[in-house]
Amino acid sequence: MKKLMIADCKLPIGRFGLVVLAGAAAISITVAAQPARTVVVRAARMLDPVAGRIVANPVVVISGDRIESVGGPVPPNATTIDLGDLTLVPGLVDAHTHNLLEPEDEVTPPVLTKSQAYRAIEGVSAVKKNLEAGFTTMRDLDSEGAGFADVALRDAINKGVVPGPRLLVATYALTITGGHMNLTGMNPDISLPDPATLTDSRDAMIAEIRREVKYGADWIKLYATGTLRHVNRETLEPLPQVSLDDVKVVVAEAARWRRDVAAHAYGGIGARNAVEGGVRSIEHGWILDDDTLRLMVQKGTFWCPTLSVFRPEAGLDKPDEFSRRVVESHKRTFQAAMKTGVKIVFGTDVGGFPHGTNNREFTYMVEYGMSPLEAIRASTTRAAELLRMEKQIGAIAPGHYADIIAVQGDPLQNIEAIKQVRFVMKGGEVYVRPGGAGRLSTSQHD
Ligand SMILES: [Zn+2]
After folding, report:
1. DSSP structural state of residue 226
2. What spacing in Å lies between the alpha carbon of 97 and ligand 1's midpoint?
């Protein structure tokens, strides 16, 4: 028998299948402890991103949802999953996603055409595709007007209602009137919902952060610069949306609730204010200047470039002179950031392009000069550091969640191998297996 102390109504009780709503006072319940199932995963190779090498013939012992040992003794009565000639890789992390956004929403604002319930159903389909592509953890950087559907999606996945990656969600983003994620070109005489929350004063920013945390936000998303339509076509200067003092207020209020801040920032003074004000990550940053990159190294700020969504293949815009200049600037910034030593994290903006194709980002990172190993680290060890989950995800190591994928080929030799996903396990549960997609409990191997 095992005794659990519950003092927080947010705590899921995991495999005991109980949800307890408790007030401020701690209560205790007693449940029967079940022995954790032991599973052994074998394959021809394993990529260890921590050591930066391929390990031959790995033996990974999994107990329940965690990795017990790597290369240790195999317990008797363990269920074995032998993956033959595949390469084991830690479950991938996409640190910039929009599971409640679909590519067509870039053309027609979904707040006008789709109900939040419909968008939540689309989200169920999106998270499944992303999980099956090998992404076992995602930081979902705002619902783009789908309310708290991201919280619902996260919680439904955690309870096993629907399959999907482990989600960290941002709910609404903070913006300003006239800035990014406002509906534009609308009749001012009628009131319409905006895809983000308009916070035009520091008091409004503080109140919005409290509301988001109250309803389940894990991260705070701040629009520190405008969007592409605000960019000066001659100089490429983005629209700064926040002052240094604004950012300091947002970061301090988020920190009160032990939340970190991710800032959408292309470059210029808005990006600089975001970095100096203490946000944990800069998103997009396709025109970050050298001074800002140096400041990011000093302050330990992470960068999610989201190369994919700006590439013409994403299909958002017809490639014209302006979008070509944006992509060129992105590449230049990426190479400068690598040289300066900025902590680059894998993030794609998937949702702006089809779900389940996030791994295209690896191709672009390598095309721009990153080694395959560093690109995979950006999606494993480095991403885990950004999310403050280094002890839980990003490596196939004892104590970590059993988040393991297997790919055909050696991704260190050819990065395209990372797209050949044949097996996906998240928290000890198998969702994709060789020869057949779809969820499969490891118990079926018993
Ligand atoms: Zn985004």
Report:
1. -
2. 6
| Residue listed under structure tokens 């482990």 | 166
Q: Are 344 and 57 in contact (CB under 8 A)?
A: no
The CA 172 to ligand 1 mean position distance, Å, reads 12
Quote the tokens at residue 113: 């055409």
Give residue-wise pLDDT tens across range 310-339. 998 887 667 789 999 999 999 999 999 999
267-294 per-position pLDDT tens digit? 999 999 999 999 999 999 999 999 999 9
Pair of tokens at residue 122? 């689309």
- Distance CA(236)–CA(226), nearest Å, equals 12
Q: Please, which residues have CB less than 5 A from ligand 1, an ion?
A: 349
- Centre a 10 Å sphere on the Cβ of residue 133 and count the other Cβ atoms it contains: 22
Q: What is the pLDDT of residues 395-428, one digit of tens each?
A: 999 999 999 999 999 999 999 999 999 999 999 9
Burial of residue 399 (number of CB atoms within 10 Å: 0-12, 13-18, 19+): exposed
Nearest to 168 by CA among 102, 101, 93, 103: 93
Q: What are phi and psi of 67, to 5 degrees?
A: -85, 130
Q: Which residues of 50-60 are buried (b: 16+ CB within 10 A; e: fewer)?
A: eeeebbeebbb
Cα–Cα distance for residue pair 219/216, rounded to 1 Å: 9
d(CA 155, CA 220): 18
- For residue 386, which of 305, 293, 270, 329 has the smallest C-alpha distance? 305
Measured CA to CA, the distance from residue 173 to residue 175 in angstroms comes to 6
Residue 350 is classified by DSSP as: B
Helix (H) or strand (E) holding 75: none
289, burial (CB in 10 Å: exposed 0-12, middle 13-18, buried 19+): middle
How far does the centroid of ligand 1 lie from the alpha carbon of residue 73, in Å? 44
Residue with tokens 């302006």: 322
